[in-house]
Amino acid sequence: MFFEVSVLISASVRELDTEDEFKIEHPFYPQSKGAVNLIERGKITGVTTYTVENQASKKIEKAILDQIKIETQDIRQNREKYKTYSQLLDTIQRKFSDNIRLMDRLRIDEEGVEDILNNEVNLMYAKLLKDAETPPEKTWSESPRFRGVAIEITKSTWKRHTRTIEELQRKSIFPDPTDRRILSEAIYLRKFRFKDTRFFLVSCDNHFCGMRPPYNEIPREIERKFNIKCLLPERLFESV
User: What is the pLDDT of residues 76-91, one digit of tens each?
Assistant: First the structure.
């Protein structure tokens, strides 16, 4: 099971033994921590890379601030708040360290990963985006009697298509360069380290594990092209 950034962060961001305004639990904590616990209990083997570890470590503080919804300036200007926040950050960083220690952190070949990124992953996402942006076929009717209905169907189809494109753009469903790099590392491990075993990518992100159209095309395409099944943490239990 390849664990990526979103799961490692959400499995670490929880602390209830603190001041009320600093109590925190990531929305995906229960399922993500449950997935990590499967490693601790010996039910699965968890693997990741140093790229994932470094990215998750950098994003921990932002994840905390996003959850407690307190402005950084307010924390810095209040001595007691700063002290409490510093303790919270230290606690969560230790939880992250405990979680990452359960993983096999594997090295990858840089040139091999770059080749996969440029010649496979980027092309796959470009094709998915192009397919999503392709306008639907027009609806025609030979009979004047049904032409009005056909026009209404065409308008409705176009509206759905436009909403789909806007949603894709708004939610950044296609990953940034770092996440594409992480997927490339997972593919590298699949090809060269885990060729003959089942291989899963565990993530909380839509651009890996989208469940509803059109996002579900992404995990389908990853599985079809690379034989990697992308799973939300809660679905991992169904596959163990």
Answer: 888 888 899 999 999 9
